[in-house]
Specification:
122 residues; Arc Repressor Mutant; Arc_rbn_hlx_hlx
C-alpha cells in the first residue's frame, strides 16, 4: 500500500442540508411509493417566517377496516398443512376438472367425511 492510496479524496456528490421536517416528509413520501419531494434549501427555510404547512401523507385507515370486515364476514381462516407431491398433483387435477378451487374441494371433502363419521357414531 502506498501513501497515495491513503490520500483523502473529494466527495463525489455535494452534501445538501435538509431541515428535519423536509427529511421526514421525504421519508413518508418514499414509504408511500412516491418520489422525493422537491428539495428545500436550509437557507430558504431560515429566511421564511411563515410556519410550514403539514404536508405529511397519512395512511387511509378506511381501506384497511373494509378489508378486515370483509374477511370477518366470510368466516374462514387460513390453515397450513403438508401434502405429498402426489396429493398436490391430484388436487390440481381435481380442481381443473371440476372448476372448483382447491380449498373448496378440501372443504367439501372434510364436510362429506365428517357427515359420514357422524352417522357411524349414532
Amino acid at each position: 500500500m502506498s501513501l497515495l492510496s491513503l490520500k483523502k479524496s473529494k466527495p463525489s456528490a455535494k452534501a445538501t442540508l435538509h431541515s428535519v421536517d423536509s427529511f421526514i416528509d421525504d421519508a413518508i413520501s418514499y414509504a408511500a411509493g412516491k418520489g422525493l419531494q422537491q428539495e428545500t434549501p436550509l437557507e430558504t427555510l431560515a429566511d421564511s417566517n411563515q410556519k410550514p404547512k403539514d404536508t405529511r401523507v397519512k395512511p387511509c385507515l378506511k381501506a384497511v377496516k373494509c378489508n378486515a370486515t370483509q374477511k370477518q364476514q366470510k368466516g374462514m381462516r387460513h390453515a397450513t398443512f403438508t401434502l405429498t407431491p402426489e396429493c398436490i398433483t391430484q388436487l390440481s387435477l381435481l380442481s381443473q376438472d371440476s372448476g372448483m378451487a382447491k380449498s373448496a374441494i378440501i372443504r367439501e371433502w372434510i364436510s362429506a367425511e365428517f357427515s359420514k363419521r357422524q352417522f357411524r357414531k349414532r
